Amino acid sequence: MPIARVALPVASDTTFDYWAPEALGVARGVVVRVQLGRRKLTGVVTGVAEDTAVAPEKLQTIDAIVAIPPVPEDILEMADFVSGYYQAPIGMAAALAVPPLPGGSAGRPRKGAPASPSPAVADEAVVALNSDQRAAIAAIGDARGTFVPFLLFGVTGSGKTDVYLHAASQAIASGGQVLMLVPEINLTPQLEGRVRAALPGVPIALLHSGLPQGERRENWRAAAAGEARLVLGTRLAVFAPMPSLSLVIVDEEHDASYKQQDTVRYHARDAAVWRARRRSIPVVLGSATPSLESWLHAQEGRYRRLDLPRRADPRARMPPVRFTGNRPAHALEGVGEALRSALSQRLARGEQSLVFVNRRGFAPSLLCSACRWEADCPRCSARLIVHRTPPELRCHHCGHREPLPHACPDCGNVDLLPLGFGTQRLERVLAEAFPAARIARIDRDSTRAKGSFAAMRSQVTANELDILIGTQMLSKGHDFPRLTLVGVLGADNALYSADFRATERLAALLTQVAGRAGRADLEGEVIVQTDFPEHPVYAAISEHDYGRLAAALLAERKVAQLPPFTFVAMLAAEAQHRADVDAFLQAAHRAGAALARAQGASIEIFPPVPALLARRAGFERGQVIVQSSRRPALQQFLPSWRSAFVEHAVRRVRWALDVDPAGIA
Predict the structure, then answer these.
(1) Domain residue ranges of the chain, discontinuous segments joined by +
(2) Does residue 313 contact residue 519 with C-beta atoms inside 8 Å?
(3) Beta strand pairing call for 385-388 and 391-394
(4) pTM above 0.90, yes or no
(5) With respect to CATH, is domain 321-362+421-556 assigned 3.40.50.300?
(6) Which CATH architecture has domain 131-308?
(7) Omega into 72 within 30° of 0, i.e. cis?
(8) Is 234 left (phi over 0), alpha (psi -120 to 50) or beta?
(9) pLDDT in tens, 479-498
(10) Predicted local confidence at residue 460, as pLDDT
(11) Collapsing DSSP states into helix, strand and coil, what is residue 403?
């Protein structure tokens, strides 16, 4: 009887052998159900052999084949790549290629068009393509059938989506399928409307974690069968089987949401580039603020840069940016007179405004004016956030909640001061300042209910709102023609971060936020409250010159020997006791240092340090960083190091190895 080698979603670097009755027709890529100990698991067959090193009496038989199309060869190869590059168990990587399956018995395949929501109505006027857009579309079309990575660098409002859709239309007309990735679930419904309007009659499948499992499974089947000609989804869609794939598009390629932060810590953008290379097809990475990695690749000729330097609507102009003090005179709870005056002017003209602050809740902390006590989370090394709806203190890291105290628990003083401001406080301030204004707060708290974000978009489009107050949820991918003012509060906070990527992220965030203003025939304006108007980030925002800022940041990274000029992996560990974390990381560091000495000077490993958030949800946290100036050297080092420190792992320590981490946590 043949032996099936099955990759199972468990923390094992090897596959598991099972008897495969010939009647089942087991082959590479088939999804099967098996027994592992007391658990019933679903796995992917990675190969079939005639013999095994496992004793025959210990072998079990495959229970059943799951009635879905086999995982194709190119996806299996991508799972192998993800497993090897990101140092993840092969079964965990292979599981990313399998759709959600019904519990119990396997479901039967259904034929028909891919399931997806009803077509949304696109809310953007049709604008003729300009010469820059046409040149970009032509370049992408000319690359059909070859691997060419394009970096589509366009200012906000430059019509990158129009380029995507025209390029997709050409690929589909030639018989191909198109994979289009977006960073956020909230962007998919809006973009789906635009896609359906631009590609009428083209079968489209959505793939993201917000879909019901049955719908996501049927959309996966449609992609695998070649019925869906365009797959639109978040990072998990990069594993969608597409037999006729001929173009990959990654929108907002710089976005950190493409990096998985648990289990298999892969980067969907980089996996998309790998997949395009494997299939010999073009891949388009689009952004107004490209990652420094992609910018460097374009500078060095590994990516081909396509520029869209002007807004797609010929009536639109890039908005002027004005800087005002962070603590101006006559401020109303942090909102300066200049911003209030600008809001008043827009209200008088019937135009819309966005006030951006990247903090949820009412205030970031609660302080006793007498003894300087501050409300800290009992489970994290972080302050509790003041919320007013409902009134409570809340930790945004672990979810801990407790009632607002009536007096200081240390000295009994009743004069407790909420410090700083979040979206709830800003909403109250602006409602009092502009009682006739129609105001909406858009953050993770206010959009928890299903459909709430889409309802807000509809209200904005119908001109039923005057002032939006929001976090980074509103910073990208949204086009509101009557929005002419963007006010930014609290941006300076990012300049104090210890994360080396903080400045790059701030530049991207502010560029995206500022880009919401003046995207049509109405003139826009951006007002930023800051203590550092001369900072290079703000200068780049003011001059709409991301390229100059990227050059400056790359120069800093090169001197400091930080990515993208070096390649980094981070071993993170957590346990309930600091001593356990320290012991594990110190042992891992010793093992790594010995391996680094043996490998040569290309590997540098740093001593263990506490994480930036040293305690989270009751667990003490620490990390060890290893870096190299050569990616192959790091890849050669990591498997041996991982094998060495796994020997020191104990149940009470949870650890994760993160290759190319999105930041230092």
Answers:
(1) 3-95, 131-308, 321-362+421-556, 567-659
(2) yes
(3) antiparallel
(4) yes
(5) yes
(6) 3-Layer(aba) Sandwich (3.40)
(7) no
(8) beta
(9) 788 899 999 998 998 898 88
(10) 86
(11) coil
